[in-house]
């Protein structure tokens, strides 16, 4: 428990913006140890997001981390600003097991929102319209649902949503969508996810994503 408290006392927030960042290997270790292959994107996709940088404005890619005084990454989030929907899309959210139950997950979302608010302003909006995330229906779903609810998210009801295959060895999977803020037009939001995240960053062909849109109806 003392180590967990130490994490909280000495946390530093940092945005990784280039593949050369010395903290990237520690971030990737947490990423790979947290997520199973079926929901884990290849490392080259994350590197592409970093390499694209400001070239994709008004869209944006973020890899935000929290590290301790030993330069060990204890929390991270990978997210996109969707300019078409004026929303932040949280793709991944991870906290080191040794640092959980200390409020890092909530702080991570708060810090990310500050970055996304800046994205919204750069895109010409007064403020960000909200956040969206996708999550799988597994044995840990109820715990995540409670956490998301505590952070102001609500599950989108009566919607079919499919995440495209992230790896050559995985398949399309149905997921739940959660939003923070007014849901707005859900089909438009999903199209923004597909185009500004999965096409722009993952390089998934648009015809594949249009076929998924049809399956969502």
UniProtKB/TrEMBL annotation:
Q: CDD domains from the entry?
A: NAT_SF
Q: Report the GO molecular function annotations.
A: acyltransferase activity, transferring groups other than amino-acyl groups
InterPro entries linked to this entry: Acyl_CoA_acyltransferase, GNAT_dom
Q: Which Gene3D superfamilies does the protein's record reference?
A: 3.40.630.30
Is Transferase tagged as a keyword?
Answer: yes
Q: Which SUPFAM superfamilies match?
A: Acyl-CoA N-acyltransferases (Nat)
Record's protein name:
Acetyltransferase (GNAT) family protein
Origin organism is Tumebacillus permanentifrigoris
